[in-house]
Design brief:
The protein has 502 residues and is mainly α. Helix content is 55%, strand content 0%. The protein contains 27 helices and no strands. The chain is elongated.
Length: 502
């Protein structure tokens, strides 16, 4: 009777609370059947990872891409396992806290392994660990395949990713293709695209309607030929990332304020686009002030810069100090004479001293005094870069065939800078045939057309100095009133042709 009462009481209790007994079985906590040490057996069967990059000739599509769908708890467990794996091979996962990671460690293992195949080391991955959030199939392989298609060598892909790992996040169609089309539209040769990108990978991250378009448009507006923009990009692609208002325009305006015409500045930039990379405040202005401090006249700056634009970016104070001391000690040229030399030939700033001494020693060996040689160099600094062998031939022709006094070489040392076979001999023979007696400068320091005009003229044109350029004004060529119409050019073009050969 007692047992029957107990069974009835138990039945009543179950009927009152059916959820507690019949429909809520006890849940056992989730236990991963594989411990972390056996969760990624594939990893243990491979060689240990190190900071040395693995060299693989080919890469293949991964067998798995992301993993399986997991609940919140499983995701947390997988994240812990993946972070432990990354730490075990030397990768710091701190930056991956906010990043969605794959569900299994095998996927992460394949990402690391793939990056090592293209040449990255663990240290490289640590520099930008966010690349581990890129899917091999969906992100990395499409990007690398496209880069290889447009000209990057497969052996250079690892280096490219090291320089600009953010490219792995890019969409090929939406972000990369438009940039390449833009570069081709600027006349960058197809075979140069890979070279340009290796030089400046960040180009792939620029917006077309932003800095790149405005910098090109501004350069064209100051006179740069649109057809020359492509070669400029190939030579110095960094200007595409420069802001016009804060970098390019202030530099251009400052050089124009020194008296350099925009047209000539445009020609300089077409051939030496790297000038745009000179820092205005830290390099260009201090160098201009340095030239003033060494005695150069401000009105000569346009000619100096046009002849040797690199002078704006050199460590100028140290070079000028060294050369000035050398000219004073060895050549007996005072600081004022040295300033005149730099005005006429600024390339001397970077000239090695042993090169300078060779023609000097030749002249001294031909009977010229030290003072005479110094005056000749101040008059014609190009002497110091003349080849001694050619100077010998010209000197012997002057002494033996022409039979002229040595004083004429003191008055016109430029004689050594002209070609003996193509200018001196032919013109001298023409003078001899007409029995014309004139100075060296009269028959050498002119164009072929001017020489013919002088040769058949009824009078000998008085000698005049070479072209001069005044800041803020136009180029004035002495005697240009008798220049034939075929020889006339714009003033800027004449200055450019006569002062600089780019």
């Amino acid at each position: 009777m007692t047992s029957m009462l107990r069974r009835n009481q138990s039945l009543k209790t179950i009927l009152r609370n059916p959820k507690d007994h019949l429909f809520n079985p006890t849940l056992k906590p989730y236990i991963n059947p594989q411990t972390p040490s056996t969760y990624f057996p594939k990893v243990l069967n491979q060689k240990p990872f190190s900071t040395n990059s693995s060299k693989f000739q080919e890469y293949e599509m991964p067998t798995i891409t992301w993993g399986v769908i997991q609940g919140r708890k499983e995701k947390l467990v997988s994240r812990v396992i993946i972070c432990d794996y990354l730490k075990s091979i030397g990768i710091t996962p701190d930056e991956l806290e906010e990043l969605e990671l794959p569900s299994t460690v095998e996927v992460m293992c394949e990402r690391v392994e793939f990056l090592q195949k293209i040449g990255l080391t663990v240290d490289d991955i640590n520099e930008y660990s966010l690349m581990l959030g890129c899917s091999v199939r969906k992100n990395i392989i499409p990007v690398l395949s496209y880069l290889e298609k447009i000209g990057l060598q497969r052996s250079n892909l690892g280096e490219f990713v090291m320089k600009y790992p953010q490219c792995l996040h890019a969409s090929v169609v939406v972000e990369l293709v438009p940039v390449i089309k833009f570069l081709r539209g600027l006349d960058v040769e197809k075979q140069d695209i890979g070279y340009v990108l290796m030089k400046y990978p960040e180009l792939l991250g620029f917006k077309l309607e932003g800095t790149m378009s405005t910098s090109v448009a501004y350069l064209v507006s100051i006179g740069v030929n649109p057809r020359d923009v492509g070669p400029m990009v190939t030579q110095y692609p960094y200007f595409l990332g420069m802001r016009v208002g804060t970098t390019i325009k202030p530099l251009v305006d400052y050089l124009v304020s020194l008296g350099l015409p925009k047209k000539i500045l445009a020609r300089m930039l077409e051939k030496r686009a790297y000038l745009l990379g000179y820092d205005l405040e830290e390099t260009v202005k201090p160098n201009v002030n340095c030239l003033l401090s060494f005695g150069l006249r401000k009105e000569t700056f346009p000619s100096v810069i046009a002849q040797f634009p690199q002078i704006l970016g050199l460590p100028l104070k140290a070079k000028l100090s060294s050369q000035q001391y050398f000219f004073n000690l060895k050549l007996k040229i005072d600081p004022d004479g040295f300033a005149r030399v730099i005005e006429k030939m600024p390339q001397i700033v970077s000239l090695h001293q042993h090169v300078i001494m060779k023609p000097v020693e030749f002249l001294l060996g031909r009977g010229f005094s030290t003072a005479d040689v110094a005056n000749m160099i101040v008059k014609c600094p190009q002497l110091v870069v003349s080849q001694v062998g050619l100077m010998k031939n010209s000197f012997y022709f002057f002494k033996n065939d022409m039979g002229r006094p040595m004083e004429e070489l003191l008055d016109f040392p430029d004689y050594f800078t002209y070609s003996l076979e193509s200018r001196i001999k032919p013109r001298y023979q023409r003078l001899q045939s007409k029995e014309i007696r004139c100075s060296l400068a009269w028959f050498l320091n002119c164009s072929d057309q001017r020489f013919e005009e002088r040769l058949y003229g009824d009078y000998i044109e008085p000698e005049s100095s070479g072209p001069s350029f005044f800041m803020g004004g136009k180029l004035e060529l002495p005697g240009n009133e008798i220049v034939s119409e075929e020889e006339e050019d714009s003033d800027d073009e004449t200055l450019y042709r006569r002062t600089v050969s780019l």
